[in-house]
Amino acid sequence: MTEAPLNRHDHFVKLFPKEPAFRLKQIEKAYFTESMKGWEDVTTLGKEMREVLIKEIPWMSCTPVTTLSSKAGDTHKVVLSGNDEQYFESVLMRNNRDQWTICVSSQIGCAMGCTFCATGTMGLKRSLSSDEIADQYRFWKQFLSQRPELPQRISNVVFMGMGEPLVNVDNVKKAIHTWLDYTDLGPTKVTVSTVGVLPVLEGILTDPDWPPVRIAISLHSPEEESRRKIVPTTAPNFHTRLAQWTKDYELEHGNRNHHITFEYTLISGVNDNEEEAKRLVKFVKTTSAVKVNVIPLNLVAGKEFVASPREGIEKFKKVLLDSGVDVTERKTMGSDIAAACGQLALTIKSDGKVVG
Ligand code: SF4
After folding, report:
1. Complete domains list, the chain, with CATH
2. Closest CA to ligand 1's atom 3
3. Which pLDDT score, from 0 to 100, does residue 215 have?
4. pLDDT for res 350
5. What are phi and psi of 354, to 5 degrees?
6. 89 an active-site residue?
7. Which end of the chain is more exposed for a tag (fewer CB within 10 A), N or C?
8. Catalytic residue at 117?
9. Ligand 1, atom nearest to 162 Cα
10. Measured distance CA(67)–CA(355) in Å, rounded
11. What is the pLDDT of residues 254-263, one digit of tens each?
12. What pLDDT shows up at residue 2?
């Protein structure tokens, strides 16, 4: 595994150690000003400084290699290359407000090894820098501005692409702060989705710098042993500690627009029967008021898991609803371009070309 590249902020400080802090703010602001296309446009900086920056710091931390669009036109996926030619993916999905949600990656590959997930089979190559995370927003903004016939607003960001964001928490946090400072995204429009890395979740409760974003926990099972078969990194006493954590996080950050979600991928014959649904209700009752989002499994080549049939999904949801649990179902989008949840994994063809 290699380290995440140096971010622009640290690179700039290395080049210009005596520059005041406001200079960095001017630079960050310029990155997110759509009319600015490169260092030469940042005329608030002196000519000499711009010349150094043109040579030393790339204007974008990643460049597109290939872009795919779903037949329905509601999902777009890009393979991006970091400046070290390591590849990762990012997805743009049209949401029900006719705006866009970006599904960002936080790492290249993933070490968590969830058994239904294509990214997990890649192993972890490296974490993304905060710029590589934040620039996925910049890339999609550019993509939309080149297509004026499409809605232009990016209203939400979800960390549901490649990687486990809490393993790269410092860069994830920096990227979120960049969006909060320089775009119109508010904290409740950003969702960090995690398998539930408990020490990090517990750490953010007392982190004064943690932004009050929404959290989605990939639960997938109400019991520790069966969950470990789906999420092998499940820690001892996972559910008890998680239930307490949901209460503590709500206490710290809860408000009318804020919630914690449990993501529950329904896998036929594994975690989708009515007994399992009843156990899930029992567990949810021990937590703060969380919402359950059921996800029909997306097929991944080489994985033996099968999606629950429609009837099974409805029965499962009914048990939860009848018990007063707030349930939603995630719409599957972009499965024809392998952009749906759990499907992101790069394919390198024999000619060296990268396809999504
Ligand atoms: S589901 Fe998420 S955490 Fe699990 S292997 Fe896939 S990318 Fe990693």
Report:
1. 1-59 (no CATH), 61-355 (3.20.20.70)
2. 164
3. 94
4. 43
5. -100, 130
6. yes
7. N
8. no
9. 7
10. 9
11. 765 567 999 9
12. 66
